[in-house]
Structures are given as C-alpha cells and as structure tokens.
Amino acid sequence: MTGTPCDPAAVAAGLIDLLDVREIVVDPAFATPATVAAYEADSSPQPGGHVFGGQVMGQAVAAVGRTVPEGRRIHSMYSYFLAPGDPGHPIRFQVDALRDGNSFSVRRVLATQPGRTPEEAERTILAMTASFQEQQDGLEHQERAPDAPDPEGLPTTAQVLDGIDHPVARYWATQRPIDIRHVTDPIYLRPDPASDAADTQMVWMRTLAPVEADPLLHDAILAFASDYTPFEPILRRQGLSWMTPGLRMATIDHAIWWHRHVDANEWLLYVQRSPSAAGGRGLTHGQVFDRAGDLVATVTQEGMIRVKDRT
C-alpha cells in the first residue's frame, strides 16, 4: 500500500475539528463599523507546506454562518484567493455584517495571517462574500443527474495510487478526509487517453467516514470538498495530468450556490466541465447532485494554470 493505512474515522473527525473555528476577541485595529465577530483556526499539514484552499473556504463558511440569525443557511458565496496561506500560523477570520433583511443576511469575511515582513502587519489570503436565507417555499425546477455507475463499485483513491512512492500520493491515499472516486479515468498519474473528447468529468465524493456535525458544518464540508477536483477538467481537455512536468496551478476565485442542503456523509456526484482556458487561466463549471439525482449545488472556479516551456 501507498503510505501508512489510515483510520478513516479519525481522519474524518479531524476535518470537523479543522472546520470548527473558535471565536476570538475582535482586534479594534482591524475592525470596521460593520464588524460583528472574529474567529481563528489552524491548518492541516499538506505536502509541500501549503494551505489547501478548500480548507480556508470551509472555515470561512463556518465563521460567517455563526453570525446570522437562527434558521438562515447559506445559499451562495463568492471567494477570491489573494495570497498563499502559511500553515505555520493560525488563520484569523473577521466577519462584517453587510445586511440583515426580513429573509436574507449578507456577510463579508476576510481571512488574514501575520505579514511576512515587519512593514506588513497583516496579510489577507482570502476574501469571501456570502448570503444566507430563511427556509422558504417558491417555484421549483432543476436539472437531473446524468447516468453514472454506483460509487461502491469504483476504486478508491488509495487503490488507484497503490504502490506510488510520492508524498502527494501518500497524502491523497491516506490523509484526505473526503472519499473521492472517479467515474471518468483518474488523471493523477497520466493524461486521459480520450482527452480530445473528455469535456466532462464525474466524481463521487463524501466524507471518508460518517461525522457528527451541525448543518452549518455540512455546508462547510461541501465548500471544502468542492475545491479538490476543479482543475481536472482543464487538464483533461489539454491532455495533461497532475504529474505533468512544469505544471503550476493556483485558484483565483471560487463560487458556490446551494440549491438544497445535504448530509456530507452521503454520496454526492460532482459533474464538471471546462468551457474555457485562455490567458493563463482556466474556468470550470460544476454541478453537484445527491444520490437521488437532485441538483443540490452549482460550483464555478477560475484558476491560474501554466505549464513551463509548453507552447
């Protein structure tokens, strides 16, 4: 096996600890008239010493969700990734209340860390705006999930990467708290042989083991998990893989619309495609369906993607 076999329950429980941000005193030096709360959270170690963007988004969702009136749940969020995070320092989340209406609440959160120079007191790594709504009835229609094989019959990431002696492969196989199973051929190690026709990618995902968490943290888990695979449809269309030499990628912005709320312990089908790559950037559009085929969320992500010396 690749790496040390993990305890799935412990890894999944670690995700809840990671997303369960702790409230701290608002620093008046950085507060605005709209500031309502501040939180702090740590980072999970990653290969290469970086901070996973989905972690910061999930923690930001947890932070803003704790400042809205009871009964309101997130229905949309938009995040800009402004700087890489440093896993050696806690991340601070300052929440500003932009609006509290009869049924909607809008919040802004800045995720910051200490600056890297004496002149830089604080560095913003993520800026998010999120909107919350009370449960309401209204018009309904939706797209339905495409046909896909059941996740139980698909190989796990650990099985796909079995025998690969690489730190990223070991982490993905043993420490990733989300169970990701590709319907389309995985491109961890090699390009999709059908890349010319592969304009759609599908993966099943859920927590590695069942977790006990409140509804807000299940929304945060969806934000966390949505950031694992959006680059892959771009790589597929370009005939690339995660192992392509000289490949550099970084998320620029990421948006999610929650149409229905789900239990992250249950399988979700994430259907993704890339409509455009231009100017050193790639765009991915994703739809998340539950096991019953209902559309529960829509995701878009734009990222910087470059391959050194590729014409």
TrEMBL record:
<dbReference type="InterPro" id="IPR003703">
    <property type="entry name" value="Acyl_CoA_thio"/>
</dbReference>
<dbReference type="InterPro" id="IPR029069">
    <property type="entry name" value="HotDog_dom_sf"/>
</dbReference>
<dbReference type="InterPro" id="IPR049449">
    <property type="entry name" value="TesB_ACOT8-like_N"/>
</dbReference>
<dbReference type="GO" id="GO:0006637">
    <property type="term" value="P:acyl-CoA metabolic process"/>
</dbReference>
<dbReference type="InterPro" id="IPR042171">
    <property type="entry name" value="Acyl-CoA_hotdog"/>
</dbReference>
<dbReference type="InterPro" id="IPR049450">
    <property type="entry name" value="ACOT8-like_C"/>
</dbReference>
<keyword id="KW-0378">Hydrolase</keyword>
<dbReference type="GO" id="GO:0047617">
    <property type="term" value="F:fatty acyl-CoA hydrolase activity"/>
</dbReference>
<dbReference type="Pfam" id="PF20789">
    <property type="entry name" value="4HBT_3C"/>
</dbReference>
<feature type="domain" description="Acyl-CoA thioesterase-like N-terminal HotDog">
    <location>
        <begin position="47"/>
        <end position="133"/>
    </location>
</feature>
<dbReference type="GO" id="GO:0009062">
    <property type="term" value="P:fatty acid catabolic process"/>
</dbReference>
<dbReference type="Pfam" id="PF13622">
    <property type="entry name" value="4HBT_3"/>
</dbReference>
<comment type="similarity">
    <text>Belongs to the C/M/P thioester hydrolase family.</text>
</comment>
<protein>
    <submittedName>
        <fullName>Acyl-CoA thioesterase II</fullName>
    </submittedName>
</protein>
<feature type="domain" description="Acyl-CoA thioesterase-like C-terminal">
    <location>
        <begin position="156"/>
        <end position="305"/>
    </location>
</feature>
